[in-house]
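Forum: Protein Structure Q&A
Topic: Joint prediction for protein chains with partners

I've read a bunch of threads here and the consensus seems to be that you should model interacting components together rather than docking separate models afterwards. I'd like to see that in practice. Below is the full input, 264 residues plus whatever partners are listed. Could one of the regulars post the assembled result?
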Amino acid sequence: MKLITRNTDYALRAVCFMAKHKGKVVSVAELTRKLRVPRPFLRKILQSLNRSGILKSLRGQGGGFILAKDATQIFLMDIMRIFQGKLRLNDCLLKKLICPNKRSCPLRKKIAKIESYVLKELSAINIASLLE
Amino acid sequence: MKLITRNTDYALRAVCFMAKHKGKVVSVAELTRKLRVPRPFLRKILQSLNRSGILKSLRGQGGGFILAKDATQIFLMDIMRIFQGKLRLNDCLLKKLICPNKRSCPLRKKIAKIESYVLKELSAINIASLLE
DNA sequence: ACAAATGATACAATTATGGTATCATTTCTG
DNA sequence: CAGAAATGATACCATAATTGTATCATTTGT
Ligand code: FES
Ligand code: FES
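Posted by a regular:
Agreed with the consensus. Here's the joint model:
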């Protein structure tokens, strides 16, 4: 069971690279060379990051991508959410067959507690803290 | 991102049912009726639980399955591990491209911490606690 | 005008999940 | 002993999610 999927992974690499070269406009071509990530896939990923406001894009010759905010303001959870959706550990597959009344379902409660912890921790990790 | 997959779910339902009817030998036929789970799939699942020592099976006419241990001694994590493998949140996809030396990789450390928490919590939830 | 970049989007391959089918073996019952 | 009712083992199939590729349109610097 993976917590982080491939596209989140690639996105992280790209964002970290750009954080290390703050202020520089980086093209997909360069990122592909530096990160060894399949180029068309990386493009798609960067476009998502752009739409989500993590990156800004500059079109035309000499264009590329650049961080839209400071590295301390971009969190792991933000990026995960873009590519993996909302973190939902719960959601009760086991409809009422385990617990009599889902209102007070003990399993749901326990899993909800785990979920909120994971969420809190992932939300606290920012890109800047991954560089040093 | 699901924490619990379908087969774990079905397994949980079955085990909970059997825990409620402690001592009774239950056939797949009966479980299928009660849980509304596809029969051949459920068979496969129960056979796994048998091989893993969660259930005992009794073959031949009048046979079926029965819990191999007390419901307080069967933990959510045990069942998850059977169907979903080891919980690995970490494993560094992002090979050395983020962190200079993976020995002291800050991301790995943080994720390892989250993993161990999740593991601990899931390991503490036993079947008996889901019945009441 | 042209080249170099991204935007949008449709399509394809691979893998994981969820599920079915079948035949062999065991055991109870008459 | 014969036959039915159960599981054991295992191969196969279907669907969905993940991981990509390809292509054409648009923007922009020179
Ligand atoms: S197990 Fe789902 S509501 Fe309780
Ligand atoms: S991000 Fe993988 S070793 Fe650090």
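Residues 27-29, 43-44, 46-47, 50-51, 57-65 of chain A lie near DNA strand C (CB under 10 Å from a C1').
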